[in-house]
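Illustration: CofH family radical SAM protein.
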Amino acid sequence: MRNALATHEDILNGVIQGRRISAPEALVLLDSAELPDLAMAATVARDRHNDPRRVSYVIDRNVNYTDVCNVYCTFCAFYHKPGDPRGYVLTKEQLKQKAEETRALGGTGFLLQGGVNPDLPWDYYLDLVRHLRHDLGIWVHGFSPVEIQMMAKLSGQTLRQTIADLREAGLGSIPGGGAEILVDRIRKKIAPLKGGREKWLEVMEAAHEEGVKTTGTMMFGITETLAERIEHLEALRSQQDRALARGNGGGYTAFAAWPFQSGHTPWEGKVPKPTDVEYLRTIAVARIYLDNFAHIQSSWVTMGRKTGQLALHYGCDDMGSLMLEENVVSAAGTCYSVNRDEMTRMITAAGYEPWQRDNIYGEVPA
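Result:
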């Protein structure tokens, strides 16, 4: 295997020269490279795709239209079981209020996700998307792959046709929620009802075939090995290669990674919380390895402002969302939020020029 025994110094020199690294080489970096060396190489990789002077952010709102779910992921502190009187489904009036608040703050879209709610019919989702996009003027960055798998069953259609119908109704792009670690050993342990890695990947493949843009994610620190993290990244990189070869507009716009938040879950106290250093190491290697991804997001929402700023020097070119609303991570006990002025100050203080983007990285006029 090429360069299987190369030192991390040799591998990083290759990265700086523009060479694509292999999975074994990425594992060497993740396991043993020095942080300053990773930061330098990740920054070089970042700047191949982006203006070195600028960092983007988006003003959108994480809207969970329902918290009723029958998948019962062991790492989730947010959902309620079907039939639980505490469960909810947002009304159109509630959605309208959230949309008006979002637009008033300069926001452009909703990151729309919910539980896998068995009580909602297929027409509900089409009507929901139409209402948000056409009645309220909100970009819909919506539905995780497990939700779309459910919708395909409800509609009796293929994944591609289901996504095509959602797009015709007004769906703009698809978030990467529910990826966790794309390794079946881990998925069977933490979310056995969600399906294996292929279930998640086939939704993204269908979306890319339909010309729909999506995001890639990874939640790490839930008993996976370092090699399994690289296996996850390899699945995304290979899929992005295929998407870019099609040239139809579909593919991953960005990648985001964050550590598992175990609070209020059965995992609390059973797994060590990933450190800031581990996060920076992981995100830097992701930037280097995912050489066909244009953007890498900093996860300040889970890591806090200071580490979020540091991530900009470890390959990230995007600070993600202001998080006008966030329910899932906060349910696990991690609650970071900022307003627009604070976001631009964070980026400026880190040494960059802030610019506002939309959910597919178009620039929003000042």
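Reading the tokens back as a structure: The beta strands are 54-58, 60-64, 109-113, 139-142, 171-174, 213-220, 251-259, 295-297, 318-321, 353-357.
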